[in-house]
Amino acid sequence: MSEKNDGANRDATKRSARERLQLERERQKTRDKRRRTLVVSAAVVGVLGLAAVVGLIAANAGKSGDSAKGPVIAPSGATGKDALAIRTGKEEAKSTLTVWEDFRCPACKSFEDNYRDTIHELEAKGLLKTDYHLVTLIDGNMGGSGSLKGANAAACAQDAGKFTAYHDVLFQNQPPEVDDAYGKNAKLLELAGKVEGLDTPAFRKCVEDGTHNSWVAASQEAFRTGKFRGTPTILLDGKDIFADQSDPLTPQKLKERVEAAAKGSGGGSAKDAGGGAVSSKGAGKASPSASTGSRSGTVSGSGTGATAGAGAKASPSSDSSGSGSKPAPKAGSGGSPEN
Hints:
alpha+beta, five-stranded mixed sheet, elongated
């Protein structure tokens, strides 16, 4: 009997072991199946997410491209080669300042904050005229449409005879470089309320329709073909004011040079880099209205850099009164590459 019981116990033990093994195998199969399901699900979600991102980028790129299509309509009174400059100051002024700027560019804001009062003072005295070229470098480097839409809005302000005031408001209220706030027409219209008499139905329609978008795109193309190295690029009578780092230019020195030129001791009459004025409806292939190959020695108020090839270190030249004595900004090697 004892042997029979032992044999029965051994058989039961073997069955129990086989059952446990079978049960464990079933559990493992269940776990494997669940794991495969999770992996496949994650892969599907990843693919769908990537497709959504690609679709969003494509959609945004399409909007940006479409917004700059159409006939080139220059703003009222545009001047220079292919009517790509907006001129401020008096025509008879002996000196000409040529400015290539982007409303999203922190270095451009720094230049404006430091030199604005000096430029306005010289223009008011009839000693200086300024040709502004509006570009979209930051849109190209960082995405968005604030450079384009801001420039269009400024051109719309030119149509209304309010360019200088609105130009200054845009730079004074410039959002951080990574914030494409000027890509929203509502923000541009809100800031128009800071300029007396600008916020009219005609101005609003011009902004919302993107009337001058193609003109801005032509200006950007002129900047690209001109091989300028960054924004802002500032030329006084065709010469880069920041090129000579051994004699850095401050607002006070700019004032002295312009005053000297007006008295006939500063190298003769001003050279209009853009040529004569043309019809406000001028169109055509853009070409730079300033000499090429200039270096952009600029300041970046946020320290992020806004130059195209050779960036600039942040160090304001002087206070905005034009009487400061800090040195002009030195050209650096940072900045985003131009597309």
